[in-house]
Amino acid sequence: MRTSRYIPYAIGAVVAVVFPFLSGVYTQQIATTTLLYLALAVTWDMILRSGQLSFGTSGFFGLGSYAAVLLFLRAGIDPLLTIVLGGAFAGVVALLVGLAVLRLRGMYFAIVTLASASIFAVVVRNIPQLTGGPEGMMLPSVIFGGDPGKTYWVALAVGALAVIASELSERSRVRLALTSIRNDERVAKSSGINVFWYLVFVFTLASAIQGIAGGAYAHVYGFVSPEGSFHLNFLLLPLAMALLGGIHTTWGPVIGALALGVLGEYLKLQIPYGHLLVYGGIIVIVTLFLPQGVVGAFRARVRQWQASRGVQ
Amino acid sequence: MTLLRTAAQKRSALVLVSLAILVLVAVWKPYALIEGAQRGGLYALIALPMALILGIVGIINLAHGEFMMLGAYFAYWMFRGAGMDPLVAMIPAIVVFGLLGVVTYTLTIRRALKAPELNQLLLTFGLAMMAAQFANLMWTSQPFKPSLMYVYSSMRLGRLSFGTYAFVYDAAAIVLLVGLLLFLRKTRLGQAALAVGQNPRGAKLVGIDVNRTYLVIFTISIALVGAIGAMFLTRHSVFPSVGSPYTMKSFCLIAMAGIGNLTGIVWGGFALGVAEALVMSFRGYGGWADVVFFAVLVAVIMVRSFRIRRQTA
Fold first, then answer.
1. What is the ipTM of this complex?
2. Helix-strand-coil split of chain A, %, nearest 5
3. Are the beta carbons of B140 and A273 separated by less than 8 Å?
């Protein structure tokens, strides 16, 4: 009984790994981008599970991009290693921001993280000796010479890392701590949970993974720029994905990311300018009418149906 | 009483220190003072309506700057289509954005009033994205600006020669501040709004229609920011992402002044405007001016969280 529960996951994992053998180059490219957005969506939701709203996704994504590219260009480190180190750098910055701001939570935290992307972009633009200034930097070659299958596996690894981190935090004490902080911080504190350190830990971990996604993205596309790497899309899309799929779970954002990744590509072809309007609309509609997201609403409907049929 | 007196002493000390800094800047870099005063007027002007919503409805409107952006587009099309001066277009903008405020409130904000704070932030963030992308879809990302001669008016003062038009933002900020304070203190509706802002349940108990007050305040704020958008257009270009930095800066000012302190916003806007202009006046470091607001925001938050820690300890 226990093993059969894992069969769908195993099938999903196998399909995800062998995907490049089953599909064309174009599909693989879409899948690569989707998987990186998936990592952002899942990690954004990880922070949300603690009751904190982070708008910092695009900021830490961009920091990871820049750190990875700089380590590769200036220090000549192996691209795969620079992706990890870029994530570590984003994590350190997130740690400092979290230590400074997470004492005051709610709207102050949300606004400071929202400002973070623009602060990082301003800093990057103003030290041209190091970062190439407003023009950004081109990589001499993209990772693996642009082999679509291998880049897909890199993105898959990043996506899997986000999912595993999220699932581990869901299945350990961290989940209990974060849920209790979200529900009632005072109760959490009086049950002996160190609220502040749990929040800092989750914010740092999630931001580090966002930085890793950024590093992978920079190596896949071969360039960084203040406007491109810190673009609002890296915030807007993950939010829409996670909200659509259903927040406070791992699989909600995953499903949302897969659905919007495919739909987004279609929309991009239909409405080249302004297709992002749809994402803003998704955020508004889901927040107002489907707070549990599509997966949550579907699950609730199924449960209702089962109850009405008397199925156990 | 002693507490009050120390507070008053603190405040007068603060005023003295800031006056001393102003004199210093005026002697050292007079252009930075003038430029900063003009920028600061605009920042304060845009922040005031946002503070009104935050103080009374209790919602951070992350789409605030985007409403201003739409107001600027409105004024631009009135200019192109009907040859209307943007300053005249403020009048139709008030009507149109008032309607937009009513629609936005009834369709979205009203349904999220009881929701957790995070949902409200997400909702207004979604609205901001919709507004910016809508502008992108309709008018592309190309900047637009009407050519107006009167914005280049200038004057000489001793050896200084500077543009005078932008002081209109300072004048407008002060007029708006006085107007809002009179409205909140002298009119029945304003007093009701203040009561709702302090305690919605108590206001309801004494017979104030809370929902209607929220609607009126939200509408007034959006109508104002639409008109401010028209005024903004006289000196600045409009493009889809022009509004979002102003949302951030407005929030910085509100956080710095403290929620409910409208006068403090005008002072804060003035101070930060001068600080920005001062940073810009150093050759080669002008790009760092954008960090000023955020540095102040983080500093304010650090000070507040330090105070909280001291109180709880």
1. 0.87
2. 80, 0, 20
3. yes
